[in-house]
Amino acid sequence: MPSLQQYLNVHLSITQNFITSARSMFRERIKKRHELLLLTTAQERDTRAQAHMATREFILTVLVLYSSAASLVLAQNETTYLRELPSGQKLLCNRCPPGFHLRTHCTETQPTACQPCDVGFYTAYWNYISDCLPCSWCSSDHVVVQECTRSSNRVCECKKGFYRDSKFSNICRPHTVCPSGYGVKEKGTPNSDTVCEVCKSGYYSAGQPGNTQCVPHTECRSEEKLLFHGTNYVDNVCVTCNSITDDGWVKLIIQPFIEIFKNHNTRKLHRFVMSLTRSMNGHVCRPVTDHDCILLLRQCLSVATKQQISSLPKQLHEFGLKNLATNMEQRIKRIQDEVHLCRNTLI
Fold first, then answer.
1. Do 227 and 341 fall within a single domain?
2. Which residues does the UniProt record annotate as the domain TNFR-Cys (predicted)?
3. Strands (E), 95-189
4. Fewer CB within 10 Å, N- or C-terminus of the chain?
5. How far apart are CA 218 and CA 229, in angstroms?
6. Would you say residue 81 lies in a domain?
7. Strand, helix or coil at 289?
8. pLDDT digit string (tens) for 15-70?
């Protein structure tokens, strides 16, 4: 079905072809006139004068025709269109208003006849197209912002948590979830994805996935001691002698331990976590990136004994995770040294 723009292009092309032909004929007349100017005899001068008169008449005729064609073209606007009859006569017809489509073209005696669009179809502009356009449908990832009417298309928008693809406007993609160590710089909208930024020095990412913000590391109070410096994905660990001796040092290792697991996504680590949870409570979790697996790991470590926690570095070594094993070994030793120091101080 030809579009409204295609119809306009056809009519403009006809007008342009006419003007081009007229210009070509005019140039040919001018050429003959210059040839006649070269004649020298009296008879030739008379012929030249007649040719000059004919040229003037031709120019006037072309100007009249050009003016008529231009007036028809200029007469077209948002509510009218130019139609050429089989006889060659041109008519300025009315377009159909939004919500309607063309039923019959205008004639010398009858105006344009229009018909309203059926349900589920629309036209948004003045037109002379033979059929209304079908309204768009919203996919499962969209929500309807505006319903379809006879004069407007249905408007869809990506639902919460999704954004419109810049290349394929009918596709909604899920917002990016900022990983650990990154915070939300610009929150996602139905038309744009979430923009993440790495947390700068002195800050770490905290909050629910999808809405994580970079927040400053906790400052230790005057009676506290900084046990572990924070990173861009974990907070400072501040302790007092009472907290270490009363609460036990195992709790101080659980959160950093889990954060390390979450930020080192490897197959070896997956196998280690599955082996650890199976050995501690008989359950096997899926990969460490799975939220349920992290919860299961947290539950296992929360009831682990000091001996089980102390054996973690050795188990990490056995799975080929030497860097993590060294990291955990240093953390455990740092905590145990602090516990020993506190006990000597209290004594």
1. yes
2. 116-156, 157-196
3. 100-104, 113-116, 121-122, 133-134, 142-146, 155-158, 162-164, 172-174, 182-186
4. C
5. 10
6. no
7. coil
8. 555 556 655 665 665 565 555 555 444 455 555 555 555 555 544 444 434 444 44
